[in-house]
Design the sequence.
């Protein structure tokens, strides 16, 4: 992946991108609207703004899909969430608390910081809510 800061999108847009990634395929704006309980026009506006990033392809009245660059970025977003919630769990937070707290501030944590947290945790392969997929820039030992 090209060099990213991890701060290319607002925290809310990151959540939308992760949702599209987790759903897979083409996702309608109404699906996003219903899931996040936001007004459809708010979602449409956000999606239109996101289409200029190169992370998504948006066709009005059809839906949103991720570009290859968007898939890589979404994988980073999932990794960021899982690394941060795993870190928080080491400080006594329950699974639910760690997940909730990670959601509150993960959108403000850069890729560089996520890589450093990952390194300090020994490059874990499993987080609280799933596998942690590492990218090449994390400098992780080879995964088997």
Sequence:
């Amino acid at each position: 992946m090209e060099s990213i800061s991890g701060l290319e999108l607002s925290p809310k847009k990151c959540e939308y991108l992760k949702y599209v990634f987790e759903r897979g395929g083409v996702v309608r704006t109404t699906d996003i609207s219903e899931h996040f309980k936001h007004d459809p026009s708010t979602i449409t506006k956000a999606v239109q703004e996101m289409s200029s990033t190169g992370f998504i392809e948006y066709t009005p009245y059809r839906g949103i899909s991720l570009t290859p660059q968007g898939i890589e970025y979404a994988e980073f977003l999932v990794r960021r969430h899982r690394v941060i919630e795993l870190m928080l769990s080491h400080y006594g937070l329950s699974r639910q608390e760690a997940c909730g707290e990670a959601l509150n501030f993960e959108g403000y944590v850069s890729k560089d910081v996520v890589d450093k947290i990952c390194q300090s945790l020994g490059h874990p392969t499993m987080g609280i809510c799933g596998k942690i997929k590492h990218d090449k820039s994390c400098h992780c030992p080879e995964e088997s």
Q: What stands out?
A: The chain has two domains: 11-66, 72-134. The chain has six helices and two strands. Helices lie at 11-23, 29-36, 40-50, 68-89, 95-105, 111-120. The longest helix spans residues 68-89.
